Amino acid sequence: MIPISDRPVIAYSTNTIAQNSEIDEPFCYMKTPDGKTVDLGKLCDKQPASGTAQTCIPGSNISAKVSIAAANYEGNFFSGQVLNRGCKTIKNVKVNYEVLDESGNLIDNGFIFAQPVTLAPGQSATFRGEVVAGAQVVATHADAQE
Questions:
Q1: 10 Å Cβ neighbour count for 81?
Q2: Is 88 helix (H, G, I), strand (E, B) or coil?
Q3: Among candidates 102, 105, 82, which has minimal Cα distance to 93?
Q4: What pLDDT is attached to residue 52?
């Protein structure tokens, strides 16, 4: 099994990891197994061209339709962006997270609500909140209401 710290951090992952670091890194990035940082800013800012059909994920599982597009943990604040990939408008999106120590042990968990409160299909929202200090914060999943 690959330790959490050795896994690449990829945007649009449902298991997004953000480490507390003094290093100036892009908001949307990937860490390769050899420690290099790859800027994925162009992917995070990607918007559908006007006149293009919006792709959505039909079905009843709202959690599968809300993706955590990016996450950042800095100075005890956890922030990022979520995207409504569903076909219906959703509201009250919350991002669930876990705070881990240097050994990967759970210190705390909780959730942060995203703003704006209501998201139409294809829209994104941001979240930001203060969390307990730890070595890293893991966004476990996002929840919403229809």
A1: 20
A2: coil
A3: 82
A4: 39
Of 145, 133, 146, 138, the closest CA to residue 16 belongs to 138
Report the 10 Å Cβ neighbour count for 69: 24
Q: How do residues 82-93 score in pLDDT, each as one tens digit?
A: 999 988 999 999
DSSP per residue over 28-93, as a string?
Answer: SEEE-TTS-EEE-HHHHT--PPTTSPPP-B-SS-HHHHEEEEEEEEETTEEEEEEEE-BSS-EEEE
CA distances from 48 to 43, 44, 140 (A): 11, 12, 27
Give 77's strand partners: 74, 130
| DSSP H or E stretch at residue 108 | strand 106-115
